[in-house]
Structure formats: structure tokens, C-alpha cells
Design goal:
By secondary structure, this protein is mainly α. It has two domains: about 270 residues, Metalloproteases ("zincins"), catalytic domain (Zincin-like); about 130 residues, no CATH class. It has a four-stranded mixed sheet. Strand 3 and strand 4 form a beta hairpin. Its cofactor is Zn(2+). Belongs to the peptidase M48 family. Its EC number is 3.4.24.-.
């Protein structure tokens, strides 16, 4: 008799940090939508549509007619720790690709183009591992990553001009493909076959050199490029990601001989977290007002509140007029909450649009109470100097507020003098 209280074994693969953070955000901030997509009736309708689509649009392969494909699929499932019935299909589309059609507890993989003929045995194993990893992710943690995916896709369809929703859905999809690429590595126990599949699907070639493409990817990475892909990261990035991931892993495979995918000999959790952070930076680049996701929006809101508190700290600027302006940003404004550390803000990797935003906040305060505009703008120059953007601030005074050059120079000079005085006092 088995112990029903015994914990399930930990999956070979773990969801990336971005997956986890978005699920947490959606559960807290959109509980009704989350619940609706968790509903069994909603899932049943989706399953029925999936079955009909498979019957209409594909040719079903059998274990008897394509035993080699099914045997490779079983091997990949064993290595990924998956146990479920499998059906494999061939689509009528000529472009090489593959897709998982998700049904809980069942695996349905559709092959497109001449994959069976073009891919070598271990390359096909890698491709099947990739698709099986999609099944693994959607099945993990009671389906929460699938729910998040569905919520985001539906939200973007309902509000196509919401940039934050679009960016979140984009990044979530890209991370999902990165997770699936790791499944290809686990299935083959060699990241090079995963890269080979990427190149063959991209080029249509019958023979490729994975190491040569990885070298090409590293050369491109040195130029500082970031992804602008919508659903799948660029192939060169995917090659870099699996290369870096396998280099920090020690994975005990559920096979006769455990295989270690590592250069270091031991998987370190902090390395995995650093890798996830690096991957996110390659997928989105510097923080920009124009490409905030839901998490960025939340963080920028906290930073905005903290920036106001920092700016108003130990001043007499908080008049009724200024409070009214602050209430337009925060209905529950409380000056006694946390103050933003200006050095922390300087360490953030953002572009000029974020600096423009913080300068605009200062201008809003300055013109909320015109009786103290000059004093607030002088304090703004002081803050801009601490952020190393005093020249940008001075230019904004002239171009946005139309302040004459002489006055703009004077306001900035006053700020510099204030900093000099502060340093003298600190030294005494």
C-alpha cells in the first residue's frame, strides 16, 4: 500500500522565475479572472475544441507505422519523468516545426514538414523532449502556468493596445520556449542536439554544426543585441541560453546511468537565479517606459511613491496644493511610508525615458504650487545632479518648461552650491 501523504517527486525541470512571478501577480491582482480560467467547465470546452482540431487538420501516426518515433518519445518521457498516453500526428503544413496540443493527462504532439526525414535520431529526440516539456510545464503545480498563459493570451486579445499586457504575454511565451529547450537537453543529455534542431528548423538544411552556430551566437551576443521576438526567442539566443543553463546543472536522470550536465560539477541555486535574471535582461533590455510589463509597472509605482517621499523628505514643500497633486498619483498617499534610496535608483538599468519620467514628476510638483516653483525646481536640480543627469534636467527646463537659459543655469547653479554646502557641513 502506498502512502497517500507522501510528497510527489520533484520534477526534473523547474519553472523559470518569470513564470513564477507572473503567476503570483495574477493570482493576487486578478483573482476573478484566475478563478474563471481555473474552472473545469472552461477547461472541458477547450479540450473538446483541441480534439476536433486534431482530427480535422492532421494525420494520426500509429506506434505500428512509426515505431521509431514512439520509442524516442517514450525515452524522452522517461528522462523527463512523464507518464501519460501519447499520440503523434503529422500536419499538412510543409514548414518544419512541431507543437504540443495540450489536454490534461494526455500527450498530443503534431509534427510539421519533413521532420522525421530531416532530423537524425538524437535530434528528433531533442525535438520530442522540447514538446514534452511544454506538457510538463502546463501540468506542473496544478496547472497554474497554463492558467497564467491563458489569462495573458485572452487579456491581450481583449485589450490589444495595452502595452503592459502585451509585453507580459510576450515575455511569458519566450520563457516558456526557454523552459521547453531545457527539456530537449534533458531528453538527449547533450545540449548540442537541441541547437542542431534549432538550426535545421531555421534553415531547412540536412546537416549542421551546432558548435559553429553557438560560436556565431556568442559573437552576436558580444554586440549587446536583445530579443524583439513575440513568441519564440531568436535561435542564437536560444543556443546561448541552453549552453549557459547546461553549464550550471547537475541533473540526476531517471535512467540506468545518471548523467551530469555540468562544467562545475554541482548545481548552485544562486547561479540558476542569476541565469534567469540574465535571460530576462536579454529578452527585454533596459527598463523603458515604452515596454513595461505588469511587474515593471508595479515596481515603477513603488519607485514613484518612494521618489516623492525622498523628494519631500525634510522640506516644507508639502502644501495642500502639492498634496492634491500627489493624490492624483496615489489616492492613499502617506508621506511617512518608505523613502526611495537614490543610490538604489542609480543602480537600475533603465533608458532615458525613465529619467524623463522622474524629471516630469518634479515638474508636476513644481507647478502644483506656483508660489514655491523655483524652490522645488532647485531641489529637482539637486536630485538630478545626484542621478548624474543635471545636463538633461537643465535641457528639460528650457525645452519643456520654456524657462530662459539664464534662469535655468541659475537654478542648476544653486543646486550645485547646495551640494557643496552639504559636503562642507558633513566634513565639519
Amino acid at each position: 500500500m502506498t502512502d497517500s501523504t507522501q510528497e510527489k517527486p520533484k520534477p526534473i525541470l523547474q519553472a523559470l522565475q518569470y513564470h513564477q512571478h507572473i503567476c503570483e501577480w495574477l493570482e493576487v491582482n486578478e483573482p476573478k479572472v484566475w478563478h474563471w480560467f481555473s474552472d473545469l467547465d472552461t477547461l472541458e470546452k477547450s479540450i473538446e475544441n483541441t480534439r476536433n482540431s486534431l482530427l480535422k487538420e492532421t494525420y494520426r501516426l500509429t506506434p505500428e507505422s512509426h515505431s521509431n518515433v514512439y520509442e524516442l518519445c517514450q525515452l524522452a518521457m522517461q528522462r523527463l519523468g512523464i507518464d501519460a498516453p501519447v499520440t503523434i500526428y503529422q500536419a499538412n503544413d510543409g514548414a518544419m516545426n512541431a507543437a504540443l496540443y495540450y489536454i490534461p493527462g494526455e500527450i498530443h504532439i503534431v509534427l510539421f514538414g519533413a521532420l522525421i526525414d530531416k532530423l537524425e535520431k538524437l535530434e528528433l529526440l531533442a525535438l520530442l523532449g522540447h514538446e514534452l516539456a511544454h506538457f510538463l510545464l502546463w501540468s506542473m503545480d496544478e496547472g497554474r502556468y497554463l492558467i497564467a498563459h491563458q489569462v495573458l493570451e485572452d487579456s491581450v486579445a481583449q485589450a490589444p493596445h495595452n502595452n503592459a499586457l502585451y509585453e507580459t504575454a510576450r515575455l511569458f511565451s519566450l520563457h516558456t520556449e526557454i523552459f521547453a529547450d531545457r527539456g530537449a537537453v534533458v531528453a538527449t543529455q547533450d545540449y548540442r542536439y537541441s541547437i542542431a534542431v534549432l538550426v535545421k528548423v531555421m534553415t531547412g538544411l540536412s546537416s549542421v554544426a551546432p558548435d559553429a552556430f553557438l560560436s556565431q551566437a556568442k559573437e552576436l551576443d558580444e554586440k549587446g543585441n536583445i530579443s524583439d521576438a513575440k513568441s519564440h526567442p531568436e535561435s542564437y539566443l536560444r543556443a546561448l541560453f541552453v549552453d549557459k543553463w547546461q553549464s550550471i546543472q547537475t541533473i540526476e536522470m531517471p535512467t540506468d546511468s545518471a548523467v551530469k550536465l555540468t562544467n562545475e560539477g554541482q548545481a548552485i541555486a544562486t547561479n540558476a537565479e542569476q541565469l534567469d535574471a540574465w535571460i530576462l535582461s536579454k529578452l527585454k533590455g533596459k527598463l523603458s517606459i515604452h515596454s513595461l510589463d505588469l511587474l515593471d509597472q508595479q515596481q515603477l509605482s513603488r519607485d514613484t511613491s518612494g521618489f516623492f517621499r525622498y523628494f519631500l523628505n525634510e522640506t516644507e514643500f508639502e502644501t495642500e496644493e502639492v498634496k492634491n497633486q500627489l493624490s492624483m498619483y496615489f489616492s492613499d498617499w502617506d508621506v511617512h511610508q518608505d523613502v526611495l534610496n537614490i543610490d538604489t535608483l542609480k543602480e537600475r538599468d533603465f533608458d532615458d525615458s525613465i529619467l524623463d519620467y522622474f524629471i516630469a514628476l518634479i515638474f508636476d510638483l513644481a507647478f502644483a504650487d506656483r508660489e514655491q516653483s523655483d524652490e522645488i525646481l532647485t531641489k529637482g536640480a539637486d536630485v538630478a545632479a545626484k542621478l548624474d543627469v543635471l545636463d538633461m534636467y537643465k535641457n528639460k527646463l528650457k525645452s519643456v518648461l520654456k524657462i530662459p537659459k539664464r534662469k535655468a543655469d541659475k537654478l542648476c547653479s544653486l543646486a550645485i552650491n547646495l551640494q557643496i554646502d552639504a559636503k562642507h557641513k558633513a566634513a565639519q
